[in-house]
Amino acid sequence: KDDIHSPFVEFEDVTFGYDEHMVLEHMNLKVEQGEQVTLSGRTGAGKSTIMKLLLGLYEPQQGQIFLQGIPVSAMRETGKRKLYGYVEQSFHIVPGTVRDQITLYDKTITDRQVQVAAELTGLKDTIESLEHGYDTECTPELFSQGQWQLLSIARAAVSEPKLLMLDEITANLDAETEQEVLQALKRVSENRTVISISHRNSAEMGRIVRLLGKI
Ligand code: ATP
Ligand code: MG
């Protein structure tokens, strides 16, 4: 594909089902670099499936998915990991320190990058007020649910990915915490392409793409 004129993300006539039962049929979607798009639609419409296809976890039965003009199916794992930051509804705590939660043990990530990610997500003061700061060993009780969600955003943002994918990340939060997470997202999303999924109007960002799905 001619990548000068290619959109950042493109779904071209994509048809996909996990079995004979189709989830997406002849779907087209273009997202330009730096654009923010929210996928909306009823449960089962295929919103999370779109992200999984974009991550290359599944292959469409028909059509193609391009990232910067390159078919996702032709991209290497390492190349993809540098491009994407993916945040799900639930946070997966890993054994280790607060720093490890953010870096996932990636030694190429600098302390400065960890601090910037913590600052962007509004967690810097909370972390620095811990006795051992970033070196504090983590237990689930160390942070609130909202703080864990902010940490998952820091984890996705720390490698400065070009594309952020956010799947219903405010679904389990109360209204006040949701606002805090949305503020953090606004800061993290600046100058970045973002695809998010939301059931709630309050969490919609940028252009809304409605999926009809099956009734
Ligand atoms: P929700 O708003 O509930 O998260 P969604 O729009 O994200 O819904 P998907 O998770 O993409 O919907 O699911 C779309 C359809 O595909 C649903 O009918 C679902 O049951 C089915 N599906 C999802 N994942 C799988 C899977 N791993 N194997 C088989 N079917 C699946
Ligand atoms: Mg979903």
TrEMBL record:
Record localization: Cell membrane
Residue span, ABC transporter domain: 9-215
Protein name: ABC transporter ATP-binding protein/permease
Organism of this sequence: Dorea ammoniilytica
Classification lineage: Bacteria, Bacillati, Bacillota, Clostridia, Lachnospirales
Included stretch of the parent chain: 348 to 562 of 562
